[in-house]
Amino acid sequence: MDIFEKCTNLTPLNPLYEAKIAIEKGVYPFFIPLENNEGTEAIINGKRVLMFGSNNYLGLTTDKRVREAAIEAIKKYGTSVTGSRFMNGTLKLHLELEEKLAEFLGKEKALVFSTGYQTNVGTISAIVGKDDIAIVDKEDHASIIDGCKMSFGKMERFKHNDLEDLEKILKKLPEDKGKIVIVDGVYSMTGEIAPLPEIIEICKKYKARLMVDDAHSIGVLGKNGRGTANYFGCEKDVDLIMGTFSKSFASLGGFIAGDKDVLFYIQHTARSFIFSAAIPPANLASALKALEIMQKEPERIENLKRISEKWRNGLKSIGFDIGKSETPIVPVYIRDKWKTVYMWKELLEEGIYVNPVVPPGVPPGDSLLRTSCMATHTDEQIERGLEIFEKVGKRLGII
Predict the structure, then answer these.
(1) Angle ∠(276,262,111) on CA atoms, nearest 5
(2) Is residue 5 included in any domain, yes or no?
(3) Residues 99, 86 share a domain
(4) Which of 18, 233, 380, 398 shows the greatest Cβ crowding within 10 Å of its Cβ?
């Protein structure tokens, strides 16, 4: 058998079969090129649309100060470091960003990776050894699952935000095994917040460490956007805090923060850190400037909270099912995967961009439109977006 046969023999059992059908029907919703992206609005196929499908929570990707910081970094350092952090790719900017992140999060040390995905994969595969066990929420990000699979340890999964199931799993595990519970602070598809205080209590009871993926929490929750642990007032009880620069930080990259001894170990054993080129100067400078703005302009986070609440309440009052979202990530559950794709298409044609999420991205029967707000959305844009959703929802019989 030719190993490439799977690429062309698209039978109903092939995971790409339905993608091919969607292309033939003209409703393929992925890899849509943006001709221009102005934050709350974008141009797609020559048409200006409202952007409700971005992770640009604080609206900083188009901020003049962030852009200028990136440009100045390129002028000073060039476009790339052309090497790994381990060898020749560490700049003073890396160390400055790490120091400021650690201080921001109340941790001893932080370590900057090239992407958020690499942060989770590298950290988890380094920490979880052959005699260790990672206990993860069933809706944790794919990078967490992949990190567990790449480790030499064992992975256990508990029902989403189900404290009883988490304790049930921990209770049966051997006391002499190393254990770490890993959860998302804010879940990227549902917008739900992990119940950290209760999770911490269970972890302490069974002597398990705790790692929180705050990719969608930093810049959104807590004082000046310090994340989920700060939001609940339990920073000291979270052992590792992970974050990314590709959301609120308006850049690219990722980081892990925690005790200095643990970070030193990760720094010397995480393969995705050691064997990848470091993020370039422009990305470092963008993240540094975004971090500065977060701390100096807390009103951005307050406005994000207000705008998000208006969006959630609006969708709910129209008649849409938005689940248990408490954040700028607001799912609109359609349940049927093809209706989800068709609604995405009609919303785009009416002037609003969102993200359709179908299995395996979500469990069967949970197909949804992932919408998200920015601090820079105006009330008029929120109202216009709600009008379009109501119009399309009624036309398709969703509401």
Answers:
(1) 40
(2) no
(3) yes
(4) 398
Of 107, 109, 247, 345, which residue is the catalytic one?
A: 247
Rounded to an integer, what distance in angstroms lies between the CA atom of residue 330 and that of residue 310? 11
Here the tokens at position 235 are 């920073």
Residue 216 annotated in active site = yes
Asked which of 236, 268, 295 is the last residue of a domain, the reply is 295
How many of the other CB atoms lie within 10 Å of CB of 168? 12
Q: CA nearest 120: which of 129, 111, 109?
A: 111
The model's pLDDT over 313-334, given as tens digits with 9 standing for 90+, comes to 999 999 999 999 999 999 999 9
In terms of domains, do 115 and 214 share one? yes
Helix (H, G, I), strand (E, B) or coil at 343: helix
The answer as to whether 127 is a domain residue is yes
Asked if the model's pLDDT at residue 15 lies above 80, the reply is no
Q: Choose the catalytic residue: 94, 109, 216, 337.
A: 216
Q: Which domain holds residue 281?
A: 62-295
Known catalytic residue at 160: no
Q: What is the pTM of this model?
A: 0.95
Catalytic position from the list 188, 308, 325, 372: 188
Last residue of a domain, one of 251, 272, 295: 295
How far is residue 339's CA from residue 186's CA, in Å, rounded to a whole number? 27
Tell me: the pLDDT tens digits for 340-389? Answer: 999 999 999 999 999 999 998 898 899 999 999 999 999 999 999 999 99
